[in-house]
Amino acid sequence: MPGFQFQTISPDGRRARGREHAASAESLVRALEARGLVVLDVQEHGANARGLPRASRAAVADAIRALASLLPAGLSLVRALDVAAGTAPSALAGILRDVRSRVERGEGVAASFAAHPQAFSAAAVGVVRAGERAGDLDGAFDRLAAQLEREDALRARLLSAAIYPAILAVAGGAALLVLLIFVLPRFAALLQGTGMPLPASTALLLDAATALRANWGLVPLALAALVAAVAWLRTSSAGRRVWSRTLLALPVVGGFRRDALAAGMARTLAVLLRGGAPLPVALEDAGRSADDPLLGDALHAARARVIAGSTLHAACATERVFSDVFLSLVATGEEAGRLPEFLERAAVFFEQRTDRGAQRLVAFAEPAMIVAFGLVIGAVALSLLQAIYGINPAGLR
Prior knowledge:
The protein is mostly helical. The chain is about 75% helix and about 5% strand. The relative contact order is 0.09.
């Protein structure tokens, strides 16, 4: 029999990992639930060692939308997976065919999806698992497709808003480097050849340009160091935590970041709860799928407090990543007994605030960068003109 790795939560709230042999993932899930455990994840041991590549978010969203459309039309899940694999990119097609093979062998749909974390997040698996338990796979795939499409749309809007400031920064930085490395050293030779003393500001500027040209090989090294630093911040666990803390601590960016995190997290929790997942399981899945490490830690801590008997509002109140507005909406939803509905409202509210915040940041960044580059270039031009007029006073007439 194949071996499976699993994660569970015990009735007293303790999380555990284990490995057992079973005829299928579904039979193992039933056995674990019979012991009173809440099953978070089940994967066949070694199932991810097949070398299947990662799939893009957009491709996964399209495949889930295809499943959500095909299942209500009367196709079986196996046939729907076949059709979705036929239209998916090669990276995702292999994953979908493997999911189909697992389903044909009798494994659960959620367990089959969970075997491919490079394509399906913990939150996506949680939505499918909740729909599978409720006998509503059609609705689960529909909710999941809508969630993925909203995430992609929000991400695309934020990316498009950041493109112009990024291009402006690169172009302005390149122009300054060309000015300092190639243009100013020629003025230095010309002005110093006159034998006239240069103003202090001009001499300092020309010395800096000459030194930069003499050590121009340090520029690629500095760029390489910058790329390495960005890679460390984006890929390593410690770097991502440093970057997350930095963003949350910034005066204006911190509020924008909290809104963006609240939008994604509220939407994920709402979809999971709508699908029938218990709140502790929904918090666990949302925490495991969170892109931000501090948000993941906060959700795991909140889950532990909820299991201990706390309300979601009180469990989140001590975590600095949650804003007061989000906590108020959660508290209102719990008091009214309509938490999923209020989480959906919170998601819409914070998505709109994120959009407006991105537009304000871009509207501020563009003129600020233009003014900054203009001041630098203006200071260089004034410094050179000061030297030229000092050498040839008649130039004033």
